[in-house]
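Course exercise 7: structure representation. Students receive a sequence record and must write out the corresponding structure in token form. The form below is the worked example handed out in class, using VWFA domain-containing protein (865 residues). Read each field label carefully; the graders check that inputs and outputs are placed in the correct fields and that the protein name is recorded exactly as given.

STUDENT ID: A-19
EXERCISE PROTEIN: VWFA domain-containing protein
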Amino acid sequence: MNALWLIVPLWAEMQRRGWFPLWLAILLGLAAAAAVIRLYLRESERLGVFPRLLLASLRIILVLLVAFLLLRPAWVHRDERSRQRPIAVLIDVSQSMAQRDARPNSDDQWRLALAWGLTDPRAPFPPSGFPDTSLRARLPDRPSRLQLVQAVLTHPQLNLLARLAQKGPLEVYTFGRQRYSRSTTQWEWLKELQAEETGTALADAALELLQRDELDLPAAIVILSDGRDNASRSNFEELARQCVRRRVPLHIYGVGVSSVSQVQAAFGPAHPGDAVSPEAQAAAGLDVPNTLFVDDIAAIPVRYTVFGVPEGQVDLVLHYGEREVARKSQAIRLTPEEQQKGKTFADLLRFVPTKEDAAASKQEYTLTITLSAGDAAAPLKLTTTLRRPAQVVNRQLKVLAIDYRSRYDFQYLQRWLLRDRRVQARFYLIDGDKAAMRSGPPWLPELTREINGTLSLDADEFRTLLFDFDLLILGDVPRNFFTRQQAELIKQFVVEGGGLIHIAGRWHAPAGWAEPGAADPKARHPLAEILPVELEPVRFPLEDPGAPRPFVPVPAPAAARAPLLTLVDDPERNAALWGELGKPPREDDQQLKPMFWYYPVRRVKPAAEVFLVHPTDRTPPPDNKPMPLLVGHYYGKGYVLYVGFCDTWRWRYNTRDKYFGRFWTQAVYTAGIPRIAGTRRTQLTPAATQPVLGQTGEVYARIYSDRYEPFTAAEVSATLIHHDGDPNDPQARRSITFRKVPGVEGEYVATLPYDRIGRFELRLDPLNGQPASLPYTVIYPENHELAPGPMAEAALRRLAYASREGAEEGFYREEHLAALPDAVQTQLAPLSRRQELLLWNRWMLLAIIALLTAEWVLRRFQGLS
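STUDENT ANSWER:
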């Protein structure tokens, strides 16, 4: 019993566990004690005073003890102490940590030397210059990021783990998609780590540690990662808020380089903010040509963006077909900020196409950009290649434009064509001044031979005149200007490869060419027959009594990728120029100026390509489709383009010929070039700009027979070749099926699986004498674990700073790691121990028995019963 009293401190607190009232226990105890006193006062007189007092005391103690135990008492003791909070260490083992970074930057090379124990970790880096040759020879060749972590954690001079253990018990974890605990007594696992986790849940891994009970929270969380978080349900902002709330700061070692050395390139003119060469500055706004002319200077604008290289040299090499046609070199220099965000350069390459280029089997130009950086001991060379199809024609494009009056579109189109050195244009106005028309170029005097408004040239004269041109542009031309025979010759001109563009007018055409109710093709006017639309004659009032309804044409879904509608090379900016279905024009400078008139049609003909439609109006039932405004199709070997509006001159507002000129240049080349260079009977066009792993993409094929008739087969097979794959792999060469697009003659679509990384080539041979191929490259998604990318330094810096309310930095590179353990503050957590001793136990029972026994023995010794 004495031992029990010794382990219960004097300041312990006694508590009751029973239901028995305290006042009743005291009353019973006092009553029982009084009864005991009365009993022993009346005991036999021969009992001495001392024995009487002793026996009475034993009985009183006994009854008081019983009364006390009725309360079911317990002694409670609290021991208040404190202990060190643990230090949690999180090591990233996701696949991105297997990336092997190039280090053309001198600071990055010194960091690698520090991690490998070749320099003093507390000494500052030299202000400039790379490590010397002897030191560099001892450096590993592009170690992985995880190998860098292993080197740092086992660095004998840094001694990070042992120094952190002095600030609190270590808890070490590795993480990817999940967090795994690691031993802190045996460290063999550290040397065997592999970066194999398929995702990084950095925020979730740290938040799990913050969800502990207040007494079990870590004093600090030390994270070793490249910062690529792509699998967390939470984000860095939420992690920082929880760190501040729970008062657990983050100490983050950023692994890797701040910017990955790479070069990206694209064809196109300079954008605001680009570093522009003098040649590109002089040719500002110049578009990428799709058609080149022999002996005419071709200017190819290019843009390229450099990341992660402080300085170096860029070599631009341009090939047309197999011939090198231009080469240029440029020295570059980037600031540290530009190395992270990238710096874009714009340049211009010029060459003169030759007749050999026009006959080349490979009608495309190829741009190769090579970036050379580093020094002789550790050179870095990066290369990227671009390809773009372009035709070379060996003479000027001859164009004849005829209209009734000098409409605004005619005026500005005339000026534009006369300025284009690749075009030889002639013009004629039916209602123009005849003296001016007979004056010679740019007018065509032969067309002034009219009798009562009808051209009086016989068939041979008209054929000789017409077939000398490649493209005929007809505006608001009256029906009776051409005889039926002349109209048939225009039809024959198109069948044999000539191009035709018709710009609809309010008064004469195409209303005058339409034959209402003529089901027999022979009864139709030849000019109406070759148009890609079916229409009725519509007469327009001199003044429309209603308010004009402005509209901006909308690209048809299948034509969104058409070069004819590409007014700027940036896809997003180009899409913003056009209208949207069901929406009125926007009031901003990002969209083309609206039009106010168009000529309605009944429907488009089979195999026609719809390029532009009206945003709200539709064709009459039963067709009931968006009203076509710009439609093209092949008629025989020639291409016919129907332009159902005459308001493109409005696009010149504040932009001059930027959009107007490019649209009409592409329209003229689209319709006129086939007569010179011939028509590609097999054309492949991808729907997506950049194939990305894990997605699928559509490729469209437009196929014509050897007689330039649309293909009618339900399916066409192609071959997909993986150039970067194993030749013995069955998937390195597989079949792809093109299926016919419903309602569009000669158009097919196939779905390509982007299930592998690397260079691919799609080859299609429909046995029409002109096979086609489409090369493309599949890349990783932007935040994929295996996608090349730098350390997320900016995000990690913000996270470390925000996790401590901006009190200190908390982000470390290799040169700062020596100070990391010292920056971690020891924190103490209160430790409370509660001890409870129940007093209604066997020892109390023995005490009661002992008291009863002692009283009985003494009474027997005194001769009492």
